[in-house]
Specification:
InterPro entries: DUF3105
Number of strands: 6
Organism: Streptomyces beijiangensis
Largest sheet: 6 strands, mixed
Protein name: DUF3105 domain-containing protein
CATH topology of the largest domain: Glutaredoxin
Number of domains: 2
Distance between the termini: 109 Å
Keywords: Membrane, Transmembrane, Transmembrane helix
Length: about 220
């Protein structure tokens, strides 16, 4: 009789021990789950903060670049650059032109690279929409022309074409702005794009750079 009672007590003790072990495992599992969840949340918060800071740094850098003067840049008073749509030929005082009366149809400037000279009056309309126009003569190296073309192709609101009677081998124009650069590697190329692609000088920001002429 005593042996049966002892066996029953032992069985009860084992059950209690197993129950305590199971409860202990459940507590450890909960602790691990909470710890992992907290780590994930902290990681996401940290990543979010990092991305916000990164975007803020980009905006600050772009803002600084937009305010920085560009060495050798020529500047025309935007208020004196007329913007009438005309059909008669316009004689511009600068080559390439950076503004003035122009044709009512623009050249496509959604990263378009042209291999033939453009009509000034159509290209000026593209500048009015906030495009940067890259032009070059036969004095520009093939490597520079290719590198500039690759940049234009990946930049909405830009276009590129040869230009025969400009003073520099490579020139960049925006509405009221122009600079001659030494090569495609000249840091002023990126500076000009950053500052003037849909920049503050744009008379018609957000206007289309597609559905125009494609030569």
């Amino acid at each position: 009789m005593a042996s049966a009672k002892t066996s029953k007590n032992d069985r009860k003790a084992r059950i209690e021990e197993m129950r305590r072990a199971e409860q202990s495992r459940e507590r450890r599992s909960r602790i691990i789950a909470i710890t992992v969840s907290a780590a994930v949340v902290l990681g996401l918060v940290g990543f979010g903060a990092y991305m916000l800071n990164k975007e803020s740094d980009k905006k600050d850098a772009k803002s600084a670049a937009a305010k920085a003067p560009i060495k050798g840049e020529k500047d025309w008073d935007a208020k004196k650059l007329t913007r009438n749509h005309v059909t008669k030929q316009v004689t511009y005082p600068m080559h390439p032109p950076v503004g003035g009366d122009h044709n009512q149809v623009w050249m496509n400037c959604n990263g378009d690279v042209y291999t033939k000279p453009l009509n000034d009056m159509n290209a000026v309309h593209s500048l009015e929409h906030g495009a940067v126009w890259v032009t070059y003569t036969d004095k520009a190296s093939a490597a520079d022309v290719k590198k500039l073309g690759d940049k234009v192709k990946t930049t909405p609101y830009s276009l590129m074409s040869p230009y025969t009677n400009q003073t520099g081998a490579i020139m960049l124009s925006a509405w009221g702005k122009q600079v001659t650069v030494d090569s495609a590697a000249d840091p002023r190329v990126n500076q000009f794009f950053t500052k003037y692609v849909q920049g503050a000088q744009t008379p018609e920001p957000g206007a289309a750079c597609t559905s125009g002429l494609s030569q």
